[in-house]
Amino acid sequence: MIIKNADVYTEEGTFVKKDIYITGGLFANQNDESIIESEIDATDCYAIPALTDIHFHGCAGYDFCDRSREAIAAMAEYEASVGVANIVPATMTLSEEELTNICATAKAYKHEGRHEKRARLCGINMEGPFISFSKKGAQNKDFIKAPDILMFDRLNGASGYMIRLVSIAPELDGAMEFIEKKHGEVIVSLAHTDADYDTSICAFEKGANHVTHLYNAMNPYTHRAPGPIGAAADTDGVDVELICDGVHIHPAAVRTTFKMFGDERIIFVSDSMRATGLEDGSYTLGGQEVEVVGNLATLKDGTIAGSVTNLMDCLRTAVLKMGIPLEKAVKCAAVNPAKCIGIYDKCGSITAGKYADLVLLKKNSLETVNVIMEGKIL
Questions:
Q1: 3-class SS at 292?
Q2: Burial level of 107, CB count in 10 A (0-12/13-18/19+)?
Q3: By the 8 A CB rule, do 315 and 327 touch?
Q4: How does pLDDT run across 244-279, given as a tens digit for each residue?
Q5: pTM of the model
Q6: How far apart are CA 332 and CA 265, in angstroms?
Q7: Which candidate, 191, 116, 133, places its Cα nearest to that of 372?
Q8: Catalytic residue among 7, 271, 313, 357
Q9: Residues 340, 210 contacting (CB under 8 angstroms)
Q10: What distance in Å separates the CA atoms of residue 57 and residue 94, rounded to the nearest whole number?
Q11: Is 271 a catalytic residue?
Q12: By Cβ atoms counted within 10 A, which residue in 100, 119, 238, 260 is the most buried?
């Protein structure tokens, strides 16, 4: 396949007008010997690498916590259809028995191998139960507990060692020991936390290097109490997640975050729940009832309960409504998350030898024209 006349996103973070060559499901160099079986004219289109969502709960009527391979398959198919090629779905704060079943289901699904027209399952994001009661957000308070290394080991084993990220409130008893012992095995992310600046700094010094949905479910940044946000900004090598759905964070705060952290350390996530891609109505998240109206999902008490916006639409919102340059948004939605979970050698850029996963977007509207995974048009 050859894609001609596109403005192509490069590893340097710029757009260059050039042709893209694909053979055997991989991007190829122009001078590679191959038979060009098909051609796409991408005039007036951007070509960007397909995205990677490392934090979402569900979509298309399904949730990762449904504990079924059917749910993962349906979610993976929806995500691929919108241009997300790699997924790391998140658990919720549930009982160890339920979490074990979820992990075992993911392991079984992974062993089946990748199916065409589905995003790749690249791991599990364990969001809870090691979180703060006071900052639980939409998590179920009945299953919150202190960080437990042995429990984590049991769950990771049940998953086939697929857990890529684990959320921790560092102020909890046992949290610092957990971080110290496990940071080389899993990405430890501060989340749903009541921690102050000093406690957060200590957690980063012991090996935590990530912050889950920055600003949400944590103490705010103020001039006398900068909290985990200020601690993350002060610590090199700490990545932060942003939900750019137009609900979770004000556009001005998004722009300020780019000034604080730069585009190297920001990872766009959707945090989407099962209503994503569906109509308004009543749904569930982690066993709790959620009401969805437009792009707002809330519990009965008004707490925001995840998003109903997929990652590609979050990218569009960041660019078209928040003033983030497209080059920076692509980096945060495709490049940085792939680097975070260790798959950038195979995914995340339009580079010879990597999986031929890309999305063609109309220049004026960023509307999707084509989604291609491993060289095949979906």
A1: strand
A2: middle
A3: no
A4: 999 999 999 999 999 999 999 999 999 999 999 999
A5: 0.96
A6: 8
A7: 116
A8: 271
A9: yes
A10: 13
A11: yes
A12: 119
